[in-house]
Amino acid sequence: MRLTFERGTIAIEGNESTVPHTTWDEQTDTNRTLGFRYRDIKNHLDASDIEYEDDVLDLIQSPELTTEIELRGYQQQALNRWLSERRGVVVLPTGAGKTYVGIEAIAETNHSAFVIVPTLDLVDQWKSELEMFNVPIGEYTGREKTLKPITISTYDSAYNHAEKLGNRFKLLVFDEVHHLASESYRQIAQLFAAPFALGLTATFEREDDKHEVLGELLGGKIYEIETAELTGEYLSEYTVERITVELTPKEREMYDENVETFRNYLISTDITMRGPEDFQKVVLRSGNDPRAWRAVRSRNEARQIAYSSESKLDELAILLEQHRDDRIIIFTRYNDLVYDVSNRFFIPSITYTTDKDERQHILKRFRNHTYDAIVSSQVLNEGIDVPDANIGVILSGTGSSREYRQRLGRILRPSGDTAHLYEIVSSGTGEIRTSTRRKS
């Protein structure tokens, strides 16, 4: 029996016995399975005392990998849990040092490792951290394609090249691993034959429950520690306060009119809003139903009125004055509100349109206290190294608990100061429900 790697699959030649997870490929007269089943197949063959020739892995040779990191107690617990099977997902709050767990996993494996991250910013951050190994660090992205014993890639590039890279590494490290659960990205894990895999995230669960597939791909969640368990000693203590403001009379009138338009459409079509999938029914109808299109537009306008009310900006002015000696990050959902805040209070803004050089310039000035506040839409939720801040203000957001925890994590850093997260919501609107849902 002979095992080989072919374009993201394991081919098994010359076998007469049943091998789990495989199907017969008539074109090549072999049993075949996806690359990530390589470890399972080897375990089965070894346990069954079946002799075989293993030609699957063509590993990039690696020098001795050592570090001088001293892990914190919880980080060591997470690493030990992973080392027991060398598979699984570690969940640590933002700011708790999950990168160091990944680096130590690479050192313990002491062989070629492929690190996969969502953004080029995180590629650069990982490259900087991995320099402690004193070995060349490779990059496999749209801007550079260099393979080294330790190579960093984005999810997009890993997805595009998994078929040819899938047998070159002993260990996969997935940062922000909740991205892996998407329909396309999960193929990265499926097409790699690496026997060891580690997922890292601060927010394991997804609203669509697709995270459940990570159990099959990586071994599931093996370690998690909550923010509350680390505050005081490793992360700053924090408070959360929800501030409710009133819409102006004009805003209230416009909000109620738009809500009524949307509700009337639901009543006329007998659609009950139980979750996002029900709203998608209305969106699908809007392509050829003018009333559905008006209903969707009205709902979106109502939400934007609630999220961007004038009273929120008045309340923000009070908080900025109250915390004028603090470090403040203001979070919004819509770019229009980012620019309104930036123009009204002369606060630097970061959105998805902000180029990398300008973003780094703003964050550098925030770090050295030239700027004491920045305002951003959703681009600071993950994937960017945000300098220390101790005040967060949420002006608007989605109902995602992941987004909420990510924003909270942006102000929880090792510090003697207590962090404060304020959430400003509009009274008598659906935003109250959204706020409650994301904290659950």
Task: Give the SSE layout.
Elements: E1 2-6, E2 9-13, E3 23-25, E4 30-34, H1 38-47, E5 53-55, H2 73-85, E6 87-91, H3 98-109, E7 113-117, H4 120-130, E8 137-140, E9 145-146, E10 150-154, H5 155-165, E11 171-175, H6 186-191, E12 196-201, H7 214-218, E13 221-224, H8 227-230, E14 238-245, H9 249-269, H10 276-285, H11 290-307, H12 310-322, E15 328-331, H13 335-345, E16 349-350, H14 356-367, E17 373-376, E18 391-394, H15 401-409, E19 419-426, H16 431-438
Parallel strand pairs: 1-5, 6-12, 6-13, 7-10, 7-11, 8-10, 11-12, 14-19, 15-17, 15-18, 16-17, 18-19
Antiparallel strand pairs: 1-2, 2-4, 3-4, 8-9
Helix pairs in contact: 2-3, 9-11
Write a brief caption for the model.
The protein is α/β, with parallel strands linked by helices and 440 residues long.
Could you describe the 3D structure shown?
- GO terms for molecular function: ATP binding; catalytic activity, acting on DNA; DNA binding; helicase activity; hydrolase activity.
- This is DNA or RNA helicase of superfamily II.
- Residues 79-222 form the Helicase ATP-binding domain.
- It is a single chain.
- With 440 residues, the chain is of the alpha/beta class.
- Helix 2 packs across helix 3.
- The chain is globular, with a radius of gyration of 25 Å.
- The chain has an eight-stranded mixed β-sheet with strand order 9-8-10-7-11-12-6-13.
- It has 16 helices and 19 strands.
- The mean pLDDT is 88.
- It has four domains: 2-55, MutS, DNA mismatch repair protein, domain I, CATH 3.40.1170.30; 73-225, P-loop containing nucleotide triphosphate hydrolases (Rossmann fold, 3-Layer(aba) Sandwich); 238-246 and 309-438, Rossmann fold, CATH 3.40.50.300; 249-307, no CATH class.
- It has helices at 38-47, 73-85, 98-109, 120-130, 155-165, 186-191, 214-218, 227-230, 249-269, 276-285, 290-307, 310-322, 335-345, 356-367, 401-409, 431-438, and strands at 2-6, 9-13, 23-25, 30-34, 53-55, 87-91, 113-117, 137-140, 145-146, 150-154, 171-175, 196-201, 221-224, 238-245, 328-331, 349-350, 373-376, 391-394, 419-426.
